[in-house]
Amino acid sequence: MAQSQNVKDLAAARSLATFNVPDMTNYIHGSKENVEQRRYIFSLIEKEPIFQKKDWAWLNHTDAVKRGIGMSTRLAEIKMENDLNDYDYSIMLEAVDDTLPILLHTGAFIPVITSQGTDEQHEKWLPSAQKFQILGCYAQTELGHGSNLSRLETTATFVRETGEWELNSTSFTASKWWIGGLGALCTHAVVQALLIIDGKDYGAHVFVVPLRSLENHQTFPGVEIGDIGPKAYGGFSKMDNGYARFNKYRIPLDHMLMRFSKVSRDGVYTKPPHAKLSYGSMVLLRSVMIRQAGNYLSRAATISTRYLTVRRQFNNPTVRRDTTNPQLETQVINYPMVQNRLFPLIAQSYALFAAGQQMMAMYFRMMQDMSQGNVDALAEVHAMSSALKSYCTTLSGVGVEECRKMMGGHGYSYFTGLSHLFSMVIPSNTFEGDNYVLTQQLARYIIKEVKTARTNPDRVTPFSRYLIRATGKNANAFGRETCSVAQDQDWLSWEVQLAAFEHRAARLAIELADNVEGTADGNWSDHNIECYRISHAHAQYILVLWFGQAIRDATAASADEKVEGPTGQVLWKLSHLHALHTIQTHLADFVEDGYLSPGQCQSLRRQVKALVASLADNAVALVDAFDHPDFVLNSALGAQDGDAYKRLWDAAQSEPLNQRKVCDGYEEYIRPLLKRHGEVKL
Amino acid sequence: MAQSQNVKDLAAARSLATFNVPDMTNYIHGSKENVEQRRYIFSLIEKEPIFQKKDWAWLNHTDAVKRGIGMSTRLAEIKMENDLNDYDYSIMLEAVDDTLPILLHTGAFIPVITSQGTDEQHEKWLPSAQKFQILGCYAQTELGHGSNLSRLETTATFVRETGEWELNSTSFTASKWWIGGLGALCTHAVVQALLIIDGKDYGAHVFVVPLRSLENHQTFPGVEIGDIGPKAYGGFSKMDNGYARFNKYRIPLDHMLMRFSKVSRDGVYTKPPHAKLSYGSMVLLRSVMIRQAGNYLSRAATISTRYLTVRRQFNNPTVRRDTTNPQLETQVINYPMVQNRLFPLIAQSYALFAAGQQMMAMYFRMMQDMSQGNVDALAEVHAMSSALKSYCTTLSGVGVEECRKMMGGHGYSYFTGLSHLFSMVIPSNTFEGDNYVLTQQLARYIIKEVKTARTNPDRVTPFSRYLIRATGKNANAFGRETCSVAQDQDWLSWEVQLAAFEHRAARLAIELADNVEGTADGNWSDHNIECYRISHAHAQYILVLWFGQAIRDATAASADEKVEGPTGQVLWKLSHLHALHTIQTHLADFVEDGYLSPGQCQSLRRQVKALVASLADNAVALVDAFDHPDFVLNSALGAQDGDAYKRLWDAAQSEPLNQRKVCDGYEEYIRPLLKRHGEVKL
C-alpha cells in the first residue's frame, strides 16, 4: 500500500519545526539521561505480553481485575529482576497506563509503615513487603466518611485482658469503601480506625491488619471483603477497589503504628510530639498528581494535534498552508478556531510540566529541611501543593475532554485513546482532597499572610510577597493600579503578565481577608466561593512564575544543558500564550476593578490570536517533543506515523462482532420481527 | 431494618417545599395529560424483562449489541401492539435510556423517504418500513468526511445500458462510517452518494439501498459491512455503529429518492426547485436535542441533589439546617459552595425545558407555514436552532459531569447513573453539527440582520430586534449604555436582565459585522472565535427570554392550567438565578465595554449568592418535580427514597467478583509472587 496522504501530511507538518525536538524533549524531562532512562524503562514494559492493550476496550470490570492482578505481579517481578528504584517504578507505571491492584502497596502501604512505624515495626513488615511476600493496601475511606477522619466509624478498641486491639465496623456506614487493592489482591492493610481505650476516643490512628491467609488467600474470620463494582467511564477497571467490614477482629498491640502516638501494654496512651508531621506524604501525593496532570494533558494534546493535522475537511483557500495540491481539502488544524482551542492546551501542558518539576523539587527541599528539624516551609508548601493540585488537575481534566471534542465525530470512538485517558485523569478532581474543598487550604494560608503583610511585611513567605504591594503604605496606590500595556506587543512581557496576576491575586486575597474579618466568626463556609477564586488565582500566578523561571534557567548561559536559541524562543511564546490565554479565560477578574481597560481587553484578545497563529508551524514538533511513544498513547488517531484512517480501520477489525457472518440475535429477535406481518417483496 | 438516616433526611428535605410539586410537574411537561401519558408509557417499558438495566455495567460492546437488538425488536413490537404515535415512541425511548440499533429506522430512514421520496416511492417502502418488515438506517458520514457533503467519496454512477445505479466506494476513506443500525441490524439504508452521469458530478443525493437478504440476513455481494467497535466512555454500547463499502453494487433507477431532484431512464437530470427544502429535518433533530439537553441535565441534577441531601460530612453548626439531632454531621447540600454549584444547574434545567418546548413549537409553526408555501421563517428558525443546539448541549454536557463531581468520592462509582448519562449526552456536542462549527450559522444570520437593522429596521426578524437599539440613530446612545442596577435588589427584574443580554449580544454582533466588513473577503475563518461568542450570547438571551415568557404565560390569569402563586414565585426565582448566574459566568462580556461597573459586579455576585440561598428549602422538591422515575435514573445514589448507602451496597453485591471465595488469578499470579522468596512468618 502506498504511503497514505495522512502519513505525508504529518511528515510535512513535522518538517516545519523551527527548533530542535530532542533539545526540547531534554528540557521537558529534565535531562538527556532522564529521557534515555524513561525510554529504557518503557521498553521493559512494552515487550511483555501481559501489558499489551489491544483487548482493553472489551474487558468488563470482572475480567479486567484478573488482568490487573496479572499485571500487578509481573510489575513486581520486573522491579525485583531489574532492581529498579522508586523513580524507575513510577515510569513503569506511566508505561503501563492503568491503575492496578498493587499500586497502593508501594504508594501507601510501605510509605505509611515507613513514616509512622517504629524501628521494630519496620523490621517486622518492611523486608517482606519489599519482597512482595505480603501485599498491602491503605484503608481509610468508609461508606459514610471520606474527608472527615474524626468521624470514622471503624474502631480499634484496646482489650485490657489480652493487650490486643479489637477491630469493629460499628455501623453499616462504617464499611471501608473504595480501598484499592483490597477487593482481590492484598493480604494486609493499614487501616485508619478510631482508637478507643476504656471507652475514651483518641481519634483516628493507623493499624497494620492481616486480611487474608498467606497460605490460601482466604479472608480471616471476622473480616468480610468484597469488590465495590465498576467505576464511571470504565475507569479504574483493573483496580479491585474494595470494601471491608470487621466483626470483633483481634490484632496484636504492636500492630498499631507507634512512631508518633504510642499505647503501652497497660493501656496508657502517649500523644505525638508534632501534629503535622504526617503532612509530608500528602504533599508528595499532590505533587505527583500535578506532574501527572501535565503528563495526561500532553498526551491528549499529542493525539489531537496529530489527528487534526491529517484530518482534512472543506477546501478553504484562505487558511490552507500547503499549496502543492490545491485539490486536497484544508487540514483541520489550519482553521483558526481549532488553533485557538488546541494551542493553548499545548502551552498549558508545558506550563504543567514546569509546575510539576518545581513542586517536586520544593517537596524534596522541604523534606530535607524537616529531617534537620526545620518545619518553617511546611505551611507554605502544604498550601501551595493544595492550590496547585486543585487547579492543575481541573485544567487537565477539562483539557483532555476538550482535545477529544476537537476531534469531531471520530473523537467519540474508543480508539482515540482519549476515553481511557479521561477516565484516568478525572478522578484526580475529586480524590486526595476534592478540588473545591481543597482550595480552602490556600485561602486560610493567604489570609494569614495578609495579616503578616500588614503587620510584619518582612516575614511574608516568598510566594505571597505580591501581597506587600497591596497593604500598608502601598494600599492606596494599589487601588489605583492599572495595567501598563499600551499596544498589543506590550503583552509579550513576562513581567507585565506577572504584574497582572499579582494584582488580581492580591486584590482577591485582601477582599477575602477583609470579608472574613468583617463578619461574625464561624461563617467560613459563606466565603468558600471566594476561597476557590483566590486559590485558583494564586495557582495561576505560580504557574506563570514557574514556567518563566524554568525557561529562564534553561536558557541561562550557565545552564548545564542549555536550551539553544530557537528552542528558547518557542518556549517563551508558549509561556506568553499560557499566561495571556489564562488572563483571557478569567478576564472578569482583571477587568472588574478597572485594572484592565476595555481597550486592553481587545488588545489582549488580538495578541492571543496572534500568538496562536505564530505557533502553527511548530505544533506537531511541540507535541512530538513530549516523547510519548505509541505504546503509551494507544491511539489509532494519534500515532507517531499519522496513519489515522488506516489504524482506525484496523482497530475496528478487532471487534469480535466482525468475526460473524450474521449477528447474534438474528434468529432470536430480528427474523421474527421481519416476518411478523408476512413476507414482503421489494 | 429500621428506616435509615438517609431516608429520613430526604423525606425531611422534601417536606420543606413551599410549592405544590404536581403543579410544577404539569408546568414542566406542558399539562397534566402529558404527565399521565408519560407515566403510562414508562410503565410499558419498565415491566419488560429485556429493558432491565441491572447488568448494563458489565456488558462489553460485543454483548451489548445483542442486547440492543433484542431491545430494538421488542420496542417495535410494543409500538405496534399499542399502536403508539411518534410522540409516545419518543417517550418510550426516554424510558429505555440507551441508543439502539433501531433508532435511525424511525429517526431518519422513514423520515428521509417520506420527505424526499415520490408518492410511488412512499408506496414502495413506507408500508413495509412502518410494519418493520424492512429495517433501515441512514448512511451519510464516511471515514474521511463528515460535514462536507460535496466531497463524499461514495459514488452512484448512472449505468446507461441498464438504467441502474452502480454504487462504489471509490477510495479507502470512502467507507461509510459511524452509521447507527448498520453494523448488525438493518436490511436497508438510505445512502448519501455523489450522483454521476456520464462522468459529470451532480453532488450528493439520496438512494435507498438493500444491504442484507430478507431471508437469511447475509449481506449482498458487492456490500461489505462491519461494526466500528466500542465508543468513548462506554457510550452507545448497544448501538451497532457500522461501516460499509460498496463494490460495483447495482441498484435500480427508482432507488434514487426523486421528490426534488430527478433522473430519467435516459439519464437526464432535473434540479430541485428549492435548495433549502430539506432544512426542516435538521431543525427538527436539533430541536429534539435541545429538549433532550434539558432532560439529561435535569436527571443529573435530580441524582446529585438527592444524594447531597443525604450525604453528611463534618459538623458545621453555622450551615446546618436541622436542629433536631446536633450529633449528626452537616448535610453536604447545606454548604454554600455546594449550593452555588448545584442550584444554578437546577435553574438551567428549567430554562432548557422551556427552551426545548418553545423551539419545538417554533418548528411546528414553521412547518405549517412552509406547507402553505411560506418559507419566511426558515432562515431565522434554522439559525436559532443551530445556536441553541450548540449552547444547550454544551451546557448539558458540562452540567452532567459537574453534578457527578459534586458527589465527591462516590461520584466516581458507575452506580451513580451519571457515567451512563454523560456517555449519552456528550456526543451531542459533536454530532448533528459540531458545537463550534455550528455557531457560524447564527453568526452569518446575525450579520445579515445587522445590515437590515441599519438599512431597513422594520424588516429585522423578531428575535434580533435588539440590534435596532444599537444601530442607526441609536448607535451613539448605545455606546454609552450602562446597566441601571443601583442596589442588589434591582437585579431581580426580568427586564433588567434582558436589557443586559440584549446589550451584550448587540455589541458582539455589531463588532463582528464591522470586522467582517472591514477586512478582505474570504477570511471568514479568522472570525470564527467571534462567531462562537455571538452565537452563544444570542442563545443565552433567547433562553432568558423564553424561560420568562413561559412563566409569564403559565401564571397568566387566562392560562388553561394556571400555575398557582407559590409555584410561580419559585419559578421566577429560578429564572432570575439562571439569568444572573449566566451573566456572572460570562462577566467579562458585560464589563469590558463598561456596561457594568465594578460595583455592579460585586452586587451581582451578592445577588446570585442570595438567590441560591433562598432556594435551599425547595431544592429537593424542584428536582422531584422533573418526575424522573427510579427506573429511568438507574442510580443507587439518586433514587426517590434517598436510601443511598444501602442501594450502593446492594449494587456492589451484584459484582460477579463477589461470588467467588478467592479471586481468579490467585493460583496463577498471586501465590507464585508471595512464595517467590520463600515462606514468611508474621
Automatic annotation (TrEMBL), chains A, B:
Keyword Lipid metabolism: yes
Keywords: FAD, Fatty acid metabolism, Flavoprotein, Lipid metabolism, Oxidoreductase, Peroxisome
Gene3D superfamilies: Acyl-CoA dehydrogenase/oxidase, N-terminal domain, Butyryl-CoA Dehydrogenase, subunit A, domain 2, Butyryl-CoA Dehydrogenase, subunit A, domain 3
Pfam families per record: ACOX (PF01756), ACOX_C_alpha1 (PF22924), Acyl-CoA_dh_M (PF02770), Acyl-CoA_ox_N (PF14749)
Reaction(s) this enzyme catalyzes, per UniProt: a 2,3-saturated acyl-CoA + O2 = a (2E)-enoyl-CoA + H2O2
Domain Acyl-CoA oxidase C-alpha1: from-to ranges: 279-447
Main location: other
Residues at the active site: E432 (proton acceptor)
One Gene Ontology term of the molecular function aspect: acyl-CoA oxidase activity
Residue intervals of the Acyl-CoA oxidase C-terminal domain: 494-675
Family: Belongs to the acyl-CoA oxidase family.
Name of the featured protein: Acyl-coenzyme A oxidase
Originating species: Actinomortierella ambigua
